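INFO  loader      accepted 1 record
INFO  loader      residues=504
INFO  predictor   begin
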Amino acid sequence: MDEDRNIGSESDVRRLVVVSNRLPVVMSETVDGWHVEPGSGGLVTALAPVLRNRGGLWIGWSGTSEEEGVAEALAETTEGVGYSLVPISLTPEETDKHYRGFSNEIIWPLFHDLQSLCNFDPAYWKAYEKVNDKFARVITRETVANDFVWVHDYHLMLVASRLKAMGLRAKVGFFLHIPFPPLDIFVKLPWRFQILKALLDFDLLGFQTMRDRRNFIHCVRALVGQTEMCGRGQVCDIQVASRTVRVGAFPISIDYDALVEEARSKEVAESAWHIHENLPERQIILGVDRLDYTKGIPSRLQAYRRLLERYPEHRNKVTLVQVVVPSRRGIPGYEELKTTIERLVGEINGQFTHESGWIPIHYIYRSLSRYELLGYYRTAEITLITPLKDGMNLVAKEYCASSLEENGVLVLSEFAGAAAELQRWALLVNPYDIVGMSDVIHQALTMEPGERHRRMHRLRQTIRRHDIFWWVDSFLNASIARSLDSFPVVDDYVPEAGSARRSG
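INFO  predictor   done
INFO  writer      dumping tokens
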């Protein structure tokens, strides 16, 4: 990506300062000192070229409560890359109550419409305030007036209000990677007014979809009042009292070209060959998810069982490979979810395992290497992305980009953020409709090759056009644009009338 294409002229923004809960590295302490490895993921891929050679900063938690030697190890890691990593240390108590507590026992379930799973412990709020204060103090110390500070995700929603109280003059943007809930869900948050007013202290707010942006504006109108809005495209301005806040929908994406190149590699081809050899003459259905109750894995397994019951012709001819990546150990409910998933896998395999050796579900509970993951993407004829709710879900986009032969079918939840962009060419499902999901999986399994190719080709075109660099460009351009006229309307997913499938 051209390093000069993203941030406008030097007079607009001198440096980009990225702020996230974690730094884009993994640190571990050894007998010889700190060992630092580069992190992975779309955010790192997208923002590293923008920061490089501009003297930019990335501020975040180092992953440890230790301070001695951490800054020096990070400086050595980034020597010569043109930007710096600024560590923040958190105590074990802060990590527990801010990250595991407020962020992941309150905001995560609430913003995914699962308020019954929330633990509204008042002590969590105090820790959340304290950690946001700590981040704000470091940002204030490290930045100057013409920097642009880009804060990421739900762990740091109070940062702009703290920066404002500390007198920081730099422009501050925020991007929410998870959904923003509708008003009737958001009002259940005991600290709803504090959170909403703190978000309005950012200069630019970014959401994954138009639905999320709309939910936020509804909450502002209902709870803050005196709100005027102009602009009807991707980005709009809302006037709250004497301030103008720019609010936009910026769907995050992947580095399409780099992923395609990886998928073409010899290592991935060998991985795909081994998978085919172990599961010969079968259509492979793939599910890849973190262990999380938002991903809808139990419902997906139940839909697969219904498929085998209602369409016996698929028995012995199809295998579901369900990969579950361990996640958030120590948070209540996750071990119980793991037990539920494994019980269902055992029941379904026990019900349908055939004398010929056919096993309906291959269950993998571990992280996959990059080559393994891309091998499964290339091998799977069908991928099931069926979350109960998701901010975006980049697995859907990675699978499509990896489908080099364009013969795969994407089955996608209506409630994944990716549905807004991919709805025309994916097969959409309601993850709460078990029978409806089984019918759509049958549709995918029996789809003609020409139809598969046509749909996947269009999916890949869409993702290539709106890649991770488009996402960065669109957000940063919104931060400096004087006019709203250049921003298009972004599609949103709305179920068509009469589209609901029968459940019996």
